[in-house]
Amino acid sequence: MSSPGGSTQSPSKNSFKKQLAVLVAVAAVVILGIAGVNAFPTVSNQGYAPEQPIPFSHKLHAGQYKIDCLYCHGTAEKSAHAGVPSTNVCMNCHKVVKTDSPWIQQLTQAYNEGRPIEWVRIHELPDHAHFVHSRHIKAGVSCQTCHGPIETMDRVYQASALNMGWCMNCHRGDTTPPNVLRAYHPDLKDPKGHAVASVNCTTCHY
Amino acid sequence: MSFNETKMENQTPQSFSAPRHWIAPEELNSSYWADSKNVEKRGQEFHDKPVEAIALIDKLDTKGLARREFLTIMGASMAMAGFACARRPVHKIIPYVVKPDEVTPGIANYYASSDPETGAGLLVKVREGRPVKLEGNPDHPVNRGKLSARQQSAILDLYDPERLQDPQTVDRATGKKSVATWADVDARVVAQLKAAGNGKVRVLSGASVSDSSRRLVGEFLSAFGAGSRWVEFEPLAQDEIVQGQEESYGAAVLPVYRFDSAEAVVSIGADFLGTWPNSVQYASDWAKLRKLDSKKSKTAEMSKTFAFESLMTVTGANSDYRTPIRPGDELKVALALANQLILQQGRSRFAGDGAVRAALESYKPEAVAKEIGFDAAVLAQAADALWAARGKGLVVAGGLESKSKSAVALQNVVNLLNSALENEGQTVDGNAAPVARPSAGFAGVKQLIAEMNAGSVAVLVLHRTNPAFSLPASAGFAEAVKKVGLVIQVSEQWNETSLLSDVVLPDHHALENWGDARIRKGVTSLQQPTLAPIYATRSFQDSLLTWIGQGKLGASGLAARVANAAENTWHDYVVANWKETVFPLAGGSFQAFWETSLRDGVFVQKGVAGAHASARSFRSSALAKTPKYKAESGVKLALYASMAQADGRTSNNAWLQEFPDPISTVTWDNFVAVGPALAKKLGFSANDVAKVQVGSASMEIPVQIQPGMHGEALAIAVGYGRKVAGKVGTGVGVDVFPLVQIEGDSLAYSGLSAQISKTGKFYKLAETQWHHVTENRPIINDITLAEFKKNPAAANHTDPHLRMEDVPTMWSKHEYKGYRWGMAIDLNSCTGCGACVIGCQAENNIPVVGRNNVRISREMHWIRIDRYYSGSAESPDVVFQPMLCQHCENAPCETVCPVLATVHDDEGTNNQVYNRCVGTRYCSNNCPYKVRRFNFFDHWKSYEGSMNLVWNPDVTVRSRGIMEKCSFCIQRVQKARFDRKNKGEKIVDGDIQTACQQTCPTDAIVFGNINDPESRVSKLHADARAFRSLEILNTRPAISYLSKVRNKNGGAAQHHGGEHHG
Predict the structure, then answer these.
(1) Quick check: B527 and B517 in contact, CB under 8 A?
(2) Does A128 touch chain B (CB under 8 A)?
(3) How far is A197 from chain B (nearest CA, A)?
(4) Any CB–CB contact under 8 A between A79 and chain B?
(5) Min CA distance, B42 vs chain A (Å)?
(6) pLDDT band (50, 70, 90) for residue B78
(7) Cβ-contact B457, B200 below 8 angstroms
(8) Predicted confidence band of residue B64 (pLDDT cuts 50, 70, 90)
(9) Which of B91, B915, B978 shows the shortest C-beta gap to A124?
(10) Which residues are within 8 A (CB) of A8 and not within 5 positions of it... i.e. 6 or more apart?
(11) Which helix (H) or strand (E) holds B758?
């Protein structure tokens, strides 16, 4: 077995210099890359809080008015996707509520024109990671466990790292909410080190 | 990788010598595997020749950038990535404005529909409004939840970016095409139709099984006076069967065969398991009588199948007794068999019939057998088996490869046999055909061409047909069509015939269109669109309705009513037609009936569908034209339809181009199949290019040496060599339709006298048979029924001291507390049809790599069908083995992965974690089954534009540099788990079907929880026939195979050792 490009030549002095140069360049890229990652701790996008086309406030809707999360994100308990509500869900209330607001007027106009609102995506996993909302909701994980104090956010930001280590901490039992532990392992005294959720690779990666 | 030190047969404890399974005839030379060079050559798993590989990388991957330059750019962009702001690119979430009630993002909807060509029931899996997978409709009585490879692949055609997207007008003189608007085209067509004159309009289309469509076309043509008619033509039409039925029994019907009660089957050039239009149903039925239970082995019974055929087909490969004959010998064989049964053995009520005697007399079984070169005893055996199973036997013939000039005579003899054997009315059901329909043979086109030449056709409408390609040039279609005033082609694709048309109109894909199909009495399938048209296409039927309405053409009946109503679409027409014709059979409220039919995808009329047949009486006069026996000699050619390409209409479908032919394993090309004896005589070896000449037509085509072909037989697949097909299909293979001969009112595709000679040129066919070989390790088991009855475990010739239950192991055993997934594959049911290969491809986002990559064994299919021969090269037995990741408990791949990208989970599956894989390929190197596939390139990039809509959103699309392999459809396991867990339940047997299992027509594949002793898979694992592939390696696979059992005389050992050798 040989790999592409496997032919070797006896290196002359000149090509040795070239190789050295390449090596130095690669090393520089790696070092600077690591430095870059450290300089920007938000590489996982934690804290990412982009401006949205309509400044929808979760603080107002979920916090002050205590509208249930599932009223708008209804598919979260049925499907892998929590789903951003379609405009007609907004219009259920905003046909009559706060119709004098310029934002609501924009919303209404888009709705009437059949134009979807293009929200900016905040929480995003790579394509090779499959996260299923419904399983987590059914297991008793609250929305805030992952999404943070969403009911206090005027503008939504990514509260958790959403990286694999963060997922695993919970699946292994280190950071699992007590109610979830109780539901799944009522007799478990010390959950540390015990898997409370599957840690098979294919639980998420397929 | 070398493995030539042990011969497993030597370790066999019983006095049972295993048949030696081989891949190609050269292995029959006993010194083949002793030669270390061959071991080295065949053991290569990455066929890298560095120079070639680099050339490929430079050419394919960097799209014109030189490799060095490419690396520089890559380096720079990586450096920039390090400094760039860590924010991701901004992605949008665009929700619905008003979400349709039935759509839940992330959850698939299934819609029942049907395949307009075969009438098979479909379940279309739709995610967020786009179809992503076709599955069989389990409630459909014909295909019962199963689909063929071709039916599975139709989804790719839907998203083909080269589909016709706008109406085109063509200047026939220069071939220049330009985009037009529908309004302009309609105006032009309507004007010409109005000016056409009485009786001067013709519609030429493929065969239609749609009642609504038939009615509409008839009503459309009624506007243009008597003489305006509809001509149907299918190159693969079974018109010879229909014509034979008419001559023998009086009614022109395509009978339905009941293989599920046929205990003895004789196929004379009929590939009913492979290329027949209803092969899915027939394979499913046929396999029902091949299922065995080792617990009842003493009383086991199995159907017996004989095949006489001129090339190796799937049917022949699965038969118990297969006899190679020359193309065109089918009639002789049928007459000799009838002679044996009726005259020699004096059986049946036709024994005293003078007309029958006159026809059969000269066909002495010994003389015919001697001329063709087989043992006449097989005719006696077949006659005995058929007579013993009379009323429950079946003789079938028909198909392109037996469509010689005597094809209809052959059908009459077959009908005689079925009547003599009392099969008529039992296993041959002439009453189940829906209505008498045109047989779509050549006669209609021939008349049409004559009419065009005579100038009596003003407007020709072409739909779903490509006569410029599929008719031989000698038919004169291209010349005749020049005399037609306006040629309108309605087509999904731009093809050869488009160049002869004035107007080319883009048609809907079947998944965008309404329709219906009736292929059985009492069974009407409904076809509904599952997405809005992607392009500015319009269905053929909508075009007719538009022209009728716009032109006030004065069509009759329903067409006029619908076309002039406010709701004037094809959908309205179908609804109205169902209300008038189908609804009265059901009763109740129409709305409820219609919605039920839409939901079910099929309306089954109780008491009519599947009703018991009645016997028709055979007319001996049909045999009057039987010629007297005359011995012939010389090389004969058969043209045949390949499993993948059929008549070539789907040649732009890359899945089908890369689908390895079940027998030859060749992809991306056709070839001339030559038997080993003829190849030796003419000095051909693999990859030679031959010149094949029939009459004045000749062509150069690569040679494939095909075991089991007669010494005077050649075979070439039609449907290749398209000149105008698209990026994928144009120029793939060689077009052999020009070799077709016109014999009166029919076309002769077989029994053509041919010359074959060497050209001295070479061409490397992209065949997969030598890829992933097991280097002669015993990987497969087969026995005879007699041996099975004596000892159902007889095939299990693995050394009992090496049975995996007892082998000491250095690894700690895995514990499976919950589920443990496993699979059982019944080699006795597997016909090798390959439906699973395409089903898996669609489900698991498996890319296409192209001919050059297949040549160096880089095809990506997760499941492959390994085909092994045993016995002599002239007349071998065949066994198929679906090979996929075995999900070994002691997985050799897992122990060598340096980054833990392939690991075992606690449910027994071997997981491949794409995001961890760094591409060392050690795992593939260490895999004894060679089921791992490496992404040498970003193959997904070859899916352009709309083609990206075909990806299954539940499965990651893999990128370059990583390994992949069968996951046991883990996404389906997860879905079943989530669905059950959300309800607080456990997964039960039958919840999960892998994609391969789901589409397997013969139910050869069973998947489930082997921790549950009651599951189907557990029971099959416990069957005495079950064996694990390469068990001696102690890999402990989660897949058990069940030995192949042949219903033939003599032990496998005796058969393979003696009968054919020498």
Answers:
(1) yes
(2) yes
(3) 12
(4) yes
(5) 13
(6) very low
(7) yes
(8) very low
(9) B91
(10) none
(11) strand B755-762
Contact yes or no for B759/B691 (Cβ under 8 A) = yes
Nearest-CB residue to B913 (from A86, A118, A205): A205
Full DSSP string of B131-164 = EEEEEE-TT-TTTTT---HHHHTHHHHHT-TTS-
**Max Cα-Cα span within chain A:** 80
Q: Per-residue pLDDT for B728 more than 70?
A: yes
Chain B: closest CA distance from residue A72 (Å): 12
Given a contact cutoff of 8 angstroms between Cβ atoms, the answer to whether B140 and B476 are in contact is no
Q: What pLDDT score does A47 carry?
A: 87
d(CA B612, CA B289): 20
Q: Which residues of B touch A86 (CB under 8 A)?
A: 95-99
Nearest by Cα to B502 from B173, B901, B279: B173
Q: What are phi and psi of B1001, to 5 degrees?
A: -60, -25
**Residue B899 forms contact with A (CB below 8 Å):** no
Sole residue written with tokens 């995996």: B804
CA B675 to chain centre: 23
* Partner A, chain B 938-967, Cβ-Cβ below 8 Å: 954-957, 967
Q: Name the DSSP class of B104.
A: B
CB pairs under 8 A between A and B: 165
> Hey, is the C-beta of B138 within 8 angstroms of any chain A C-beta?
no
Per-residue pLDDT at B9: 39
Tell me if B408 sits within 8 A of B243, measured CB to CB.
yes
Chain A contact present for B10, CB below 8 A: no
Is residue B12 scored above 60 in pLDDT?
no
Q: What is the pLDDT of residue B1049?
A: 78
Give the least confident one: B204-218, B603-617, B697-711, B805-819.
Answer: B805-819
**Residue B132: pLDDT above 70?**
yes
Using CB atoms within 10 A of its CB, is residue B738 exposed (0-12), middle (13-18) or buried (19+)? middle
What is the enclosing helix (H) or strand (E) of A136?
A: helix A133-138
CA of A31 to nearest chain B CA: how many angstroms apart? 9
* Residue-level pLDDT at B409: 94
Q: Does B229 touch chain A (CB under 8 A)?
A: no
DSSP B618-677: P-GGGGTTPPPP----S-EEEEE-BTTTBTTTTTT-HHHHTSPPTTT-EES---EEE-HH
Tokens at residue A84, please?
A: 């951003």
pLDDT digits (tens, 9 = 90+) for B362-416: 999 999 999 999 999 999 999 999 999 999 999 999 999 999 999 999 999 999 9
CA angle B512, B518, B520 (to 5 degrees): 145
Tell me what the mean pLDDT of segment B193-212 comes to: 91
CA distance B1029 to B1039: 8
| pTM (predicted TM-score) | 0.89
* Contact yes or no for B90 and A50 at CB 8 A: yes
Q: What is d(CA B221, CA B214) in angstroms, rounded to the nearest whole number?
A: 11
Beta carbons of A123 and A161 less than 8 angstroms apart: no
- Locate the chain B residue with the closest alpha carbon to A53: B92
Partner-chain contact A202 B911, CB within 8 Å:
yes
Q: Do A4 and B95 touch (CB under 8 A)?
A: no
A9 close contact with B: CB closer than 8 A = no
CB A151 within 8 A of CB A164: no
Rounded mean pLDDT of A107-112? Answer: 95
More confident: B827 or A39: B827
- The residue-averaged pLDDT of B194-219 equals 91
Radius of gyration over alpha carbons of chain B, in Å?
29
Across the interface, whether the CB atoms of A25 and B75 are under 8 A apart is answered yes
Give the mean pLDDT of B269-284.
93
